[in-house]
Structure formats: C-alpha cells, structure tokens
Amino acid sequence: MKPHTKESEYLMPLEVAGLKYRNNFVVGSGPAVKTLDMITEIERWGWGGASLKLAIDPTYISKPPRYRWLKKHKYHAFTAETRLTFDEGLRLMEAARKAVSELILYANMSYAGEQGDDGWIRMAKKYEDAGAHVIELNMCCPNMSFNVESSGGQTHVVSGASVGSNPDIVSKTALAVQKAVNIPVFVKLTPEGGKIAEVAKACFDNGIASVGSTGNRLAIPDFDIDNPEHGICHLQDEPTLACFSGPWIKPLALRDVYEIRKQCNPDDMVMGSGGIERWNDAVQMMMCGADFIQICTGVMIKGPKILPKIVKGIQQFMEEKGYKHYRDFRDVIVPRITPTDQLTLYRGHAVVDEEQCTGCGICADVGHCYAITMKDEKAKIFVDDCTGCSTCTDVCPVSAISMQVLEKID
Ligand SMILES: Cc1cc2nc3c(=O)[nH]c(=O)nc-3n(C[C@H](O)[C@H](O)[C@H](O)COP(=O)(O)O)c2cc1C
Ligand code: SF4
Ligand code: SF4
Question: How far is the CA of 86 from the centre of ligand 1 (A)?
C-alpha cells in the first residue's frame, strides 16, 4: 500500500551500521507498537523505524495498562503496563518483517532472569532469526524493578532502569550481545541514577553504534487530597510512582541528550526521546545532539499521522536557514551551553507600558520584588530597587512590562 504522504520521502535519509533509514524518526517502543496493524500504519505514515513493544523474558510485572494523559499539566503517566512475552515478541517481529518493506524494525528487549549475559544473548539471537533489523537493549524502563525498589518493595529481578545506570554492566552486556549477533545492537538508557552520559560513553567505547535516552522519570502524579488512598488511574486503587512521559519531560530529555553528546564523538549516533510532539521539539532535540528521534506519547495520543506535519516543519525550517542536512544543525547548542559562572549579563530594569497596563496589580504581588507599586491604577517601577530578574514580564497577563537593557556587567 502507498504511504499516506509524499513527505515521507523527505530529505533526511541516513545510514547507520549498514541500515538505510528513510528518515530519522522512530516510533518509540510502547503500546502504539504492539500489533501488526499498528506497525503497518507506522510504515504507511512514513516513519523511518518502529521499536516493537518490550518483550521481557522471563515474564515480569506484566499487567493491564493504566495510563493518564493530563493534558493541562502536559504529562502522561503510566502506572501499569502489559509487556510482550518473548514468544509474542518473536511472532510479532516475524509477521512485521513480512508485512513492511521500508520500516527499520527494532526488537526492544530485556532479560530478567539470572544475572549474566547469556539470557540477553539468547534473546537477541532469536530476535535476529525472527527478522529484527536492530536489537534495542532496554536498560531504561523505570517502571519495573526500579519502581519496586524505589517504592519500598523487594525484588530479586534487576531489569530496565535498575541495570541501566551501571556503566560496567551495561557496556559489557551490550558488547557481549553485539559479538553474538550480526545485526546492530543499540542501547536505550535511563536518566535515573544520574549517570546517563557515563554509561553512554562506556557503550560507545565498546563499539556500540547507537545509544539513546528514554527521557522517562518516575514521579508522583497529581492526586486527590480528599481521597489519598486512591491513585489517579481509573480502575486502580493505590497511588504509586508512575512513569512520566510527554511534553513535561522534554527539558530533562534535552539535557540527557546534551550530556550524552558532550561525552561522545561526532560520529556516534545518539537517540533522543522525551516529550517530542512538534517539529520544533525535534529540531531542539537534534540541536542538543540527537541523530534519531523517538516518539511514543505523541503517537499514543494522536496516532502515527503526526509525522508528516513534523517533517514539513523541519523541511521549511531547513530551507529558511539554508541547511542541507540535519547534521548542519545537529549539536549547535552543545558548545553554546555556558557555565553559570561565565554568563554575560547586562544591567537593566523593568519598564511598564502604561497604555497597555490594566492596573490589575499582579506584578506588584511578586514576593521577591520591592520595586513595583500601584499608583493611579498603573504599575510603577522604582528602577533603583529593580534587580533586573524579569519575573514581572512573565506574570503580567497583557505583556505590558519589558526589560530595558543597559551596559554589560564586568
Ligand atoms: C505507556 C508507555 C510504555 C512504554 N513502553 C516502553 C517499552 O516497552 N520499551 C521502551 O524502551 N520504552 C518504552 N516507553 C518509553 C518510550 O518509548 C519513550 O522513550 C518515552 O516515553 C519518552 O518519549 P515520549 O515522551 O515521546 O513518550 C514507554 C512509554 C510509555 C508512555
Ligand atoms: S524585573 Fe524583577 S525586580 Fe525588577 S521590577 Fe520586575 S520583578 Fe521586580
Ligand atoms: S501585571 Fe501588567 S497589567 Fe497588571 S498591573 Fe502589572 S503591568 Fe499592569
């Protein structure tokens, strides 16, 4: 069947470890990549790749899915999730490989048995036989053993984020798996534990072709203070730490990718995921160092049809700026991120446009500011007391306040 859009043939094809991607957008492993129909739709909308839902062996914490999409708060939170059994994963991979022709298929997998590399290797070999283009080691999911440990439970299983912050174990396992199969092994890492760049570097040093970040964080979602014994999910009793994704995590995800990119070589392929919904999110992720972009929550909420608009936006951006390839703008922010002790700062103060000021008084309430008073139903700034922090420009509902820039501070 023909793709839904011409934009699928856009100008960012890339080749990694011998695999030809028609573009660098991959639907991230999750509930939108767990049936054959979903995968064929992903191909038709022009995506470069699809990472099949995690298969975990032996089966561990696989429950009916419980999700909340709190769009007002801009986050998605899941508390429970169905993982594929290893057999289901293999069957899906075999079927997908027959059904699609252009999509690069990732086997997102995690071994949850006895420690050591043998289980990982066995899974990877079987996935290779089933037709996977890429083995994606899931060293990232924070909602399995890591959740159990973080919320006071006990488990003997070391899975996902519990293993993902150990540079030695991750890089050795990745290397052992890579030696055992002839397809590329990519590693998807967790920011939990604070060592994502160190782990990524250890993997690249061991010759792994691509490493990336999941962006997800465990957090406590909003809950009802009148009903604290219940969590926010429907059809579930208790509150729990939940796995956060979507726009709320984007700033953290950008930092993860920036940190990985700083640590590795320009030719190392970095994947970024976390809160990417629109074309400019994707550009920001590439400017922080990403080659691949994975999107999961955006596809869960709006379907794989989101890709063409993202692609069109990037194309227009590239035309306007004269960029020929994403590599022309990848990393641009990386060397520009400046240590806080070296910032260039200017003296200056707030200025009120009295014509626009409605006299609402919101700016005069700013708790750390003694420079604003209300007079004749207009805000007045005492410039000598203004520190230049600029909070008032952001709280004013009608944008009546701007900053007057003066000389550079030595
Ligand atoms: C409900 C749900 C299930 C997920 N399942 C997996 C998974 O099975 N394997 C995996 O590597 N990542 C999984 N992820 C992580 C996503 O692939 C993605 O890396 C992350 O959510 C950040 O991107 P996003 O904000 O676009 O969702 C899951 C995310 C969500 C929200
Ligand atoms: S810039 Fe900061 S200190 Fe100055 S008036 Fe606004 S809130 Fe007050
Ligand atoms: S918040 Fe804006 S509109 Fe309200 S008093 Fe201050 S300057 Fe005027």
Answer: 18
Are residue 28 and residue 57 in the same domain, yes or no?
yes
> For the chain, how many structural domains are there in total?
2
Cβ–Cβ < 8 Å for 261, 270: yes
Q: Which two tokens stand for residue 174?
A: 């990745």
Cβ distance 46 to 8 under 8 Å? yes
| CATH number for the domain harbouring residue 355 | 3.30.70.20
- Domain range enclosing 381: 340-408
- CB-CB contact of 107 with 52 (8 Å): yes
User: Is 1 within the bounds of a domain?
Assistant: no
Find, among 127, 116, 46, the residue nearest to 90 by Cα: 127
Q: Is 389 in the pocket of ligand 2 (CB under 6 A)?
A: yes
Say if residue 271 is in the same domain as residue 225: yes
Answer yes or no: do 306 and 344 share one domain: no
Choose among 225, 331, 215: nearest CA to 269.
331
Asked if 202 and 283 sit in the same domain, the reply is: yes
What gap in Å lies between CA 405 and CA 29, rounded to an integer? 47
Per-residue pLDDT of the chain (410 residues; tens, 9 = 90+): 444 444 444 557 899 999 999 999 999 999 999 999 999 999 999 999 999 999 999 999 999 999 999 999 999 999 999 999 999 999 999 999 999 999 999 999 999 999 899 999 999 999 999 999 999 999 999 999 999 999 999 999 999 999 999 999 999 999 999 999 999 999 999 999 999 999 999 999 999 999 999 999 999 999 999 999 999 999 999 999 999 999 999 999 999 999 999 999 999 999 999 999 999 999 999 999 999 999 999 999 999 999 999 999 999 999 999 999 999 999 999 999 999 999 999 999 999 999 999 999 999 999 999 999 999 999 999 999 999 999 999 999 999 999 999 999 98
* Cα(403)–Cα(347) distance, integer angstroms: 10
- Residues 221, 254 share a domain: yes
Q: In testing the pocket of ligand 2, which one of 390, 401, 403, 404 has its CB within 8 Å of the most ligand atoms?
A: 390
Given 336, 361, 387, the domain boundary residue is 336
Q: Whose CA is nearest to atom 4 of ligand 2?
A: 386
Out of 106, 210, 214, mutate this one to test ligand 1's pocket (max ligand atoms within 8 Å of CB): namely 214
- Say if residue 182 is in the same domain as residue 290: yes
Same domain for 181 and 72, yes or no, is yes
